[in-house]
């Protein structure tokens, strides 16, 4: 049986790729968004095999005007978004003083600004219908300060805080908000962020299919916070008790290259 429409950003790989197929298997029509048109077409074919409609829209959310264009395209096609999945995001590795300013600003645009803008654009329609779900993909990095990835960690902290606050505001509205906070996961993120040789990723990673499935289940159950893996849950609990300078020092060591 066909369900509603899901708008999913960052759909061309990793968690987004797996989530798209989980939604399709359950009968949800999809609006999949990413920069790479070729990968979107591949995903479209996979998901259409489940008998659902799939709209592939190639947009670079690092460009503010393309966020607006995405909304205009969805509105033009009269597609009611029942579930919004803000999954697009990236990180970079190195000292802040040596980082490329434009890359940092694009990271903030994708990880924070586009997520916030898309939520603002589609949320009122959900509230008016008194039903809807929002999944914001953050990271356990949102619980820490992250030397060598200072901007990325800060952006995930925003996503986590924003999601928890919004969930509280929307109680009783029929709309739920879920923050998915995975730890190290084999998604391809680590390659773009140059983290594949770090202690963090050499110390063991979770399977992307497992993380996506746990996130999907948490979203459908209306959970506010989903942290896949008992080690990750233990970490997020322990950092609340430890001195912040110690936690920051540990975070730097874990992210250092071996």
TrEMBL record:
The molecular function GO annotations come to: oxidoreductase activity
Keyword Transmembrane helix applies? yes
Instruction: Recite the UniProt keywords alphabetically.
Output: Membrane, Oxidoreductase, Transmembrane, Transmembrane helix
SUPFAM superfamilies membership: NAD(P)-binding Rossmann-fold domains
Pfam families registered for this protein in UniProt: adh_short
Keyword Cell wall biogenesis/degradation included in the entry's annotation = no
Record GO cellular component, one term = membrane
Q: Which domain of life is it from?
A: Bacteria
Question: TM segments?
Answer: 134-154
User: What InterPro entries does this protein map onto?
Assistant: NAD(P)-bd_dom_sf, SDR_fam
Name the family the entry cites.
Answer: Belongs to the short-chain dehydrogenases/reductases (SDR) family.
Its recorded name reads: SDR family oxidoreductase
- The organism of origin for this protein: Brevibacillus nitrificans
